[in-house]
């Protein structure tokens, strides 16, 4: 699909390009629809169970899920109710988000793969309904997917406004131009920063506090490119236009400024002395 390619046009440029493995997210349009519909049925089943367990959540569950006709209507309702304010009302956001999902079906397909990823990878996530209603990492990422669509359609100020609302609401700063693949899990999410030219491949997992940022020294294409199934631990920083190949693990609190070959695990920070009053003397002794 042409639009799907343009949404993730850098995918072929990530370090995963050499991989000829079967792509678990590659499906025909009919299969994608079926995938989304199956997930939607699972979400509704979970919602019915939840309301019987905890009647106090009835209002939330009926308004956000059981009274909604489709996955896309429900998702746009959930997201819009989070970021609405007095200037742009929930109904206006919902209409816009629903329009984006109608015109770009890959958005809801990606959302569905993200929910499945959370259930598969997060031991604390009992079912899709839980992720759909309660995971701010999921909410922030789906809002970014809509803002990415706006960005691609020349509505950059509105996309940036959504970015700032996501930042205020969920504490995660995801630039609208950043490219996220399918099946991405952002766990806990607080303090995540993803820069403008970052690319996050299919099946990646990012924990809270992750920075995919620039070094502050360059302009243009300046942010990290993650291949497929990369795990970036909590508070890790990957800085600059570095390529992290498929299946790498970047440990919690690591700082990475160089390319990494496939399947590598990286931990720690180097803490090198680069310059300063005693820089050269210290460097000779370290
Ligand atoms: C990097 C990581 C994937 C390594 O896992 P692993 O390959 O199974 O490595 P091990 O646990 O066997 O540890 C191997 C060595 O690396 C060290 N190590 C592991 N993670 C480290 C980290 N983040 N920073 C520094 N050292 C680390 C261990 O102490 C051990 O050192 P030793 O051999 O001297 O004893 C994992 O430790 C990690 O950081 N995961 C991120 C998870 C996360 O962010 N969780 C947040 C949940 S809220």
TrEMBL record:
Region feature Disordered, mapped onto this chain: 1-31
Residues annotated as domain Serine acetyltransferase N-terminal: 39-143
Pathway linked to the protein: Amino-acid biosynthesis; L-cysteine biosynthesis; L-cysteine from L-serine: step 1/2
InterPro entries listed in its UniProt record: Hexapep, LbH_SAT, Ser_AcTrfase_N, Ser_AcTrfase_N_sf, Serine_acetyltransferase, Trimer_LpxA-like_sf
GO terms, biological process: cysteine biosynthetic process from serine
EC number(s) reported in the record: 2.3.1.30
UniProt cross-references to CDD domains, sorted A to Z: LbH_SAT
Molecular function (Gene Ontology), one example: serine O-acetyltransferase activity
Pfam family, one: Hexapep
Coiled-coil zones: none
Record keywords: Acyltransferase, Amino-acid biosynthesis, Transferase
Family note: Belongs to the transferase hexapeptide repeat family.
PANTHER family, per the entry: SERINE ACETYLTRANSFERASE
Name this polypeptide is given: serine O-acetyltransferase
Organism: Bathycoccus prasinos
């Amino acid at each position: 699909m042409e639009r799907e390619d343009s949404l993730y046009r850098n995918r072929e440029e990530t370090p995963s390009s050499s991989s000829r493995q079967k792509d678990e997210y590659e499906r025909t349009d009919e299969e994608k629809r079926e995938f989304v519909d199956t997930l939607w049925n699972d979400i509704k089943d979970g919602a019915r169970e939840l309301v019987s367990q905890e009647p106090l959540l009835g209002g939330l569950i009926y308004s956000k899920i059981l009274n909604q006709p489709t996955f896309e209507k429900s998702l746009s309702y959930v997201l819009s109710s989070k970021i609405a304010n007095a200037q742009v009302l929930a109904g206006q956001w919902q209409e816009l988000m629903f329009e984006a999902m109608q015109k770009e079906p890959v958005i809801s397909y990606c959302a569905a793969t993200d929910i499945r990823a959370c259930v598969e990878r997060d031991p604390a996530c009992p079912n899709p309904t839980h992720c759909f209603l309660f995971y701010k990492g999921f909410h922030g990422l789906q809002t970014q997917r809509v803002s990415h669509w706006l960005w691609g359609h020349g509505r950059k100020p509105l996309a940036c406004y959504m970015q700032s609302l996501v930042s205020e609401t969920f504490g995660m700063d995801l630039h609208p131009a950043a490219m996220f693949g399918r099946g991405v899990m952002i766990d806990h999410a607080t303090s995540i920063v993803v820069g403008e030219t970052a690319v996050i491949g299919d099946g990646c997992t990012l924990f809270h506090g992750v920075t995919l940022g620039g070094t502050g020294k360059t302009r243009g294409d300046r942010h990290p490119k993650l291949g497929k199934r990369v795990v970036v631990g909590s508070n890790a920083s990957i800085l600059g236009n570095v390529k992290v190949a498929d299946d790498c693990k970047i440990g919690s609190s690591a700082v990475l400024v160089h390319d990494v070959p496939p399947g590598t695990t990286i931990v720690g920070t180097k803490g090198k002395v680069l310059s300063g009053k005693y820089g050269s003397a210290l460097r000779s002794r370290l």
